[in-house]
Every structure is written in C-alpha cells, then in structure tokens.
C-alpha cells in the first residue's frame, strides 16, 4: 500500500499539496477508510504540490492556526453547496465559542438544505491551554461489569476536565459481578463532590438488575453499595433511604448517608457511542503531545484493534501531522487495526487530505 506524504513548507500551508481524494464528501458522516489491506506492504511516497481542493486548503489553514483565513475560505465555499464546508464552519464556530455566528449559520443551513440545522452545544468549550472543557462524553458500559471496568473508568475519568458531562449508558449491561459493582460504586463516590456532571440512560434496567442481587449475604454488599450509589446519582432520595435502612438491618453496619448533590439527568441511550476502552486524545495535538502519544503507543501494545477517541481533540497542528503519521504507520506495521473516531470536521478533513484514511478507519463526529 502506498501512503502519500506531502512535501511542503509546513509554515506555508496555503501553498497546497496534492490530495489523494479531493472530492470525497461525508454527508452522512459514516465511516471512511479501512486501514491497510491485508497482505500489502507500506510504501511512503512523496507526491506533488498542486491541484488540491479549497476544502483541503481550509483544513490545512485551520491546522496551521490560521483560523481567520480558514473561516474566510469556508464562507466563500458555502454557495457551492459542498456540505463539508458547512460542517467545518459549524465546528470552527463551536470551538471558538461563537454562538451568534453559529446560530446565524444554522438558519442559513436550514433554508439551504430544508432540514433541521445543527444545535449549539452549550457544554463544549476550549480553555486557553487548548484543552476541550465541558465536553459531553458518551460512555456505553459493556454487557458484563467485572473487575476490568475499574481501570477503564479510571482512564476515561483522567481524560475529562472537571466540568465535563459524562453520559453513562447502562442499557446494555446484562450482568454485574461483585468486583464490577464495587468499582462502579467507588467511581460514583469519588466523583460525587466534583464538578463532573452525569447523564444516565438505561437506569431502570441497571436498578432492576441490582435489586435482584441485593440479598442479605455478607458477600453481596457490593451490589447494595452500587445500588445505593445509583440511587444517589439519580437523586432518588426516598429509594436511597429505604435501601439504607435495609442495608443496616441486613449487615449490622452503618449505611452510607444521603448527600445533597446535583442529580444526574436521565436521557435516552445515545445512538452512537465510543467503546468503553477507547484511548482518549484531547486538546491540540502538537509536538507538546508526546506524552499523550506515548501513552497511546503503550495502550496499543496489548491490543490488535486500536480504537482512538478523538472527540476531545480541538486541532491537530500542521507541523505535527508527519509525526502522527509515523506513529500510526508504526502501529499498522505491527499488525494493528486502527480506528479514529469522534473527530470534528476540521480534523477529519485534515486526516483525509494527508492520507491518514489509508492508515485507519475513520468515523467523524456527527453534526447534531
């Protein structure tokens, strides 16, 4: 397999490179790319520097932190009807916290395409360090909660800013063992007094499952503790206090006390979720991201399928793309299958024009 590598002055991204697929749109925001075909080697080729599309140029301008130039170019492309330009401009406004411009563009979008426009996400914002803050992160829990969930939850919590929103989806959980129940209750306890917010789906199913396990057996305390933690999370004080009394009687122990904290919002299960054990990248990916990338490589060592959650990545610095490609090629060369998912439209188009879709399966964020 040949991987195009674009030879150009990285300080001059407006002197464009030849893209591999200039007109590849993703209007349905489905998956693109499939990684390397089995049995083929990897060859790095340099290609020429002319003939790129304006979409490609806008992606490279944004990657080079030339936001004003990228915005002007994207605005000039709206009349052409390429939905990618609209998607990229929406994400540019969202990341820059320009709500008024976003809403104006949404109105134009609705009139142009005669469909519902995307909705401003009031949670997402970017701090001065470039880290995504207030991000709403969906997390679908596996069919079986066991001891392994503790490490996965710790990894995900470490990737979130304090004021983020974590969407816990219990709808697929069909079994819980004691270690998994204890890990979940410990996690909920640790986050109770932080600024982390929760949205919960599948609450009734996990409550029903835990109720069936709350027997007066000394070995079953973990189930009681998780159910108490879920009641606390959901703001169900009456149910919590009734169960706490039963806990005290069953085990002759003082039960946890009710805490007056913000209750989670119950929501429908998200249609698209990122696997629980995906590796999370965040902020601006640049030469300063070496520690993040080193952790990614360590994470990938024990896995054949490497899933990377890019939903909290705000930008990939143009000067860093070559390094990132090198790391992905190293994973591919060692037999890994790579999936990059959740990336915003600006990052997705940069990945495409730089040929990363030849290294990894790509599933961008949906425009909602």
Terminal-residue CA separation: 35 Å
CATH H-tier superfamily of the largest domain? STAS domain
Could you name the ranges where pLDDT drops below 50 across 5 or more consecutive residues?
Answer: 1-51, 122-133
Morphology call: elongated
Average pLDDT for all residues: 81
Largest sheet: 4 strands, parallel
CATH architecture of the largest domain: 2-Layer Sandwich
Structural class: alpha/beta
Q: Any idea of the CATH topology of the largest domain?
A: Transcription Regulator spoIIAA
Integer count of domains: 2
Number of continuous helical runs = 12
Instruction: Please report the total strand number as a whole number.
Output: 14
CATH class of the largest domain: Alpha Beta
Q: Encode the helix/strand succession as letters.
A: EEHHHHEEEEHEEHEHHHEEHEHEHE
Strand order of the largest sheet: 5-7-9-10
Our Rg estimate from Cα atoms comes to: 23 Å
Strand content: 15-25%
- Binned, the helix content reads 25-40%
Describe it.
By secondary structure, the protein is an alpha/beta fold. The protein has 2 domains: 209 residues, Transcription Regulator spoIIAA (2-Layer Sandwich); 125 residues, Transcription Regulator spoIIAA, CATH 3.30.750. The strands form 5 sheets. A 4-stranded parallel beta sheet has the order 5-7-9-10, with no helix packed on it. The chain has a 4-stranded parallel beta sheet with strand order 11-12-13-14. Helix 1 packs antiparallel against helix 2. It is elongated and about 70 Å long.
């Amino acid at each position: 397999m040949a991987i195009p590598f674009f030879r150009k002055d990285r300080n001059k991204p407006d002197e464009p490179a030849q893209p591999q697929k200039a007109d590849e749109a993703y209007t349905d925001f489905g998956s693109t790319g499939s990684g390397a075909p089995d049995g083929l080697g990897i060859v790095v080729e340099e290609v020429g520097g002319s003939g790129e599309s304006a979409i490609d140029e806008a992606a490279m301008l944004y990657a080079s932190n030339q936001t004003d130039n990228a915005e002007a170019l994207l605005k000039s492309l709206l009349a052409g009807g390429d939905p990618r330009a609209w998607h990229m401009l929406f994400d540019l406004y969202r990341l820059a916290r320009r709500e008024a411009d976003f809403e104006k563009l949404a109105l134009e979008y609705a009139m142009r395409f005669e469909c519902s426009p995307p909705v401003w996400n009031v949670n997402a914002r970017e701090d001065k360090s470039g880290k995504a803050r207030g991000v709403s992160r969906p997390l679908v829990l596996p069919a079986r909660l066991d001891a392994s969930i503790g490490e996965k939850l710790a990894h995900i919590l470490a990737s979130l800013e304090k004021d983020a929103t974590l969407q816990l989806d219990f709808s697929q959980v069909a079994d819980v063992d004691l270690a998994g129940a204890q890990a979940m209750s410990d996690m909920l306890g640790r986050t109770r007094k932080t600024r982390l917010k929760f949205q919960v789906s599948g609450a009734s199913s996990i409550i029903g499952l835990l109720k069936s396990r709350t027997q007066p057996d000394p070995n079953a305390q973990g189930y009681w503790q998780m159910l108490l933690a879920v009641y606390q999370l959901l703001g169900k004080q009456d149910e919590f206090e009734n169960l706490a009394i039963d806990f005290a009687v069953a085990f002759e122990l003082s039960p946890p006390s009710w805490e007056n904290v913000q209750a989670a919002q119950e929501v429908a299960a998200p249609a698209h979720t990122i696997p629980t054990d995906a590796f999370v990248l965040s902020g601006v990916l640049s030469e300063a991201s070496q520690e993040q990338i080193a952790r990614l490589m360590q994470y990938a060592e024990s896995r054949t399928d490497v899933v990377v959650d890019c939903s909290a990545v705000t930008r990939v610095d143009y000067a860093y793309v070559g390094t990132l490609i090198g790391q992905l090629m190293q994973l591919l060369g060692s037999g890994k299958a790579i999936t990059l998912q959740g990336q915003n439209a600006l990052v997705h188009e940069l990945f495409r024009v730089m040929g990363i879709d030849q290294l990894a399966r790509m599933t961008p964020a949906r425009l909602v």
